Amino acid sequence: MFGWHWLLEWQTPYEFHGHLIEKVFAEEKTPYQHVTLVEFTRFGKGLIIDGKVQSTLYDEHIYHELLVHPLLLSLPKPPKNVLILGGGEGATLREVLKYKSVEKAVMVDIDEKVIEFAKKYLYEWHQGAFEDKRTNLVITNGLKFINETNDKYDAIILDLTDPIKDSTSYMLYTKEFYEKLRGILNQGGGIVTQATSPSFSLEVYVTIYNTIKEVFKEASASYTYMASFDGLWGFVYGGVRPDLLSEDEVNSRIRERISGQLRFYDGYSHKISFSLPKNVKSEFQKITKVSTEKDPIYVPA
Question: Which residues of the sequence carry a binding annotation for S-methyl-5'-thioadenosine (predicted)?
Fold first, then answer.
């Protein structure tokens, strides 16, 4: 449990990053994944799943705020009913519940053991969100839930693990799956998904964008730098166009719709996050692949 050792995290088949670990707080092997809570020398407390850094206290707020707020602020009406797929730490749920208008936040996660782990060890992430009366926690497979639900949602947030072959999230990045999501959105609603790293899997990032754009009339993409991931991290939005919001509009809607403080996201960071660099824009033009059930994309493990 104690002592210094290294996490060697493979980003590509020919590149890894080393993270020095000072302490292991907790470790659990679930039916679906291997979960570890550690103290990183640089990033403080951090969550590792299957050998990959999921989030750290150093910068998890950057990831979760950019995942949630551009989508929810770009909705024409403040959201009342929000669906989250994944997001076991509870931090995505935490951000959704900051909206004054939210009446129900449904969070669907396949791994009950991860939820129990989060409730026990990750309070800094969820900050009591699991106990909020607006939270409805459902333990099941995300695809099964989408196939069986009769409810409609103003927004759907996909805080999933990467599309690694044979993983539980593998088929949740396909055209067919996004079509199902479109079918359970209220009018004016939208979706967002984490979209892997433009630094290490640019083709996957672009393909996720192409796939969502194939299904929704409106689509946009953003990115930010995550120090704990040692690279850029991408997000893709469908059904709405957060990239069209001005800096002033973002700041105004934050004041109107959100209760509580944001640590990273504001009008300026919004503008920067949606200003994709020239090399990434050129890849959107070159790569036209769309992910389908017959030809899904995946990130090499």
Answer: 33, 109, 141-142
- Nearest alpha carbon to residue 47 among 139, 99, 111: 111
Give yes or no: residues 119 and 46 share one domain.
no
Residue 146 φ/ψ, nearest 5 degrees = -65, -35
- The C-alpha angle 222, 225, 231, rounded to 5 degrees, equals 110
Which one is catalytic: 59, 111, 159, 243?
Answer: 159
| Domain of 120, in residue numbers | 60-286
Sequence ranges of the binding site: 33, 64, 89, 109, 141-142
Q: Is the dihedral of CA 274, 278, 279, 282 positive or negative?
A: positive
DSSP letters, 235-273, are EEEESS-GGG--HHHHHHHHHHHB-S--SS-SHHHHHHH
Cα–Cα distance, 4 to 40 (Å, whole number): 10
64 and 41 co-located in one domain = no
What is the per-residue pLDDT for 4? 62
Feature table: binding site for S-methyl-5'-thioadenosine: 33, 109, 141-142
Whether 292 is covered by a domain: the verdict is no
Contacts 24+ apart (CB under 8 A), 265-271: 265/65, 265/66, 265/69, 265/70, 269/66, 269/224, 270/70, 270/242, 270/245, 271/247
Under the banding of pLDDT at 50, 70 and 90, the label for residue 251 is very high
In a domain, 293, yes or no: no
Q: How many residues does the chain have?
A: 301
Torsions phi, psi for 104 (to 5 deg): -145, 130
Checking if the pLDDT of 121 tops 60, the result is yes
CB burial of 186-214 (b: ≥16 within 10 Å; e: otherwise) equals beebbbbbbbbbbbbbbebbbbbbbbbbb
Question: Is residue 59 among the annotated active site residues?
Answer: no
Q: Which two tokens stand for residue 173?
A: 């990045």
